[in-house]
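pls design
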């Protein structure tokens, strides 16, 4: 992975975390145990610190940054969807940020909450735990049910399993020119996309 020291500060990646080789880590970045960082993610700890706590995931093309002296934090089991932007905010334990959502400085997404896809969360935003947050500007739509929170946790567990799969079996290769006769299929069982 492209990893860069700046002003004598080097990123830290726990050995049980998986960071895709195309992700970029700069400076004061802390990737904790069992974390997943997807392809083309950018974690720029050149002003403020970036922390991913145990079991968090940051998916493809996400951007994380902060103003000088501020932190961007994804707490334990945080789940950050494809293309999301986090800037100097805190995503609390078991919370999720949907695809292409933006969460701005000093916003705090409470534990077990979900930020909907493409939402824009203003600076300084706060909410109660288990909130469903949608829109641009984002607002709390309602409280999540236990079933919805459980669905989110199962999705995060899939990414924790993906971390292990990547560490154990992912390797760079050349593509085949045609499908081989005994091609295996990637089937991930047990995750209900509808949350039922």
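designed seq:
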């Amino acid at each position: 992975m492209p990893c860069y020291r700046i002003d004598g500060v080097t990123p830290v990646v726990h050995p049980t975390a998986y960071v895709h080789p195309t992700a970029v880590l700069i400076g004061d970045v802390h990737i904790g145990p069992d974390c997943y960082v997807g392809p083309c993610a950018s974690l720029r700890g050149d002003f403020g610190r970036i922390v991913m706590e145990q079991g968090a995931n940051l998916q493809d093309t996400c951007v994380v940054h902060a103003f000088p002296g501020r932190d961007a934090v994804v707490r334990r089991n945080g789940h950050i969807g494809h293309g999301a932007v986090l800037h100097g905010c805190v995503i609390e334990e078991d919370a999720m940020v949907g695809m292409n959502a933006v969460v701005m400085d000093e916003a705090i997404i409470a534990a077990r909450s979900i930020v909907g896809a493409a939402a824009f969360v203003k600076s300084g935003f706060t909410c109660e735990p288990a909130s469903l947050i949608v829109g641009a500007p984002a607002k709390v739509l309602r409280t999540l049910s236990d079933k919805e929170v459980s669905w989110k946790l199962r999705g995060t567990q899939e990414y924790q399993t993906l971390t292990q799969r990547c560490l154990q079996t992912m390797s760079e290769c050349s593509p085949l020119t045609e499908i081989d006769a005994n091609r295996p299929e990637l089937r991930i069982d047990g995750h209900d996309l509808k949350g039922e």
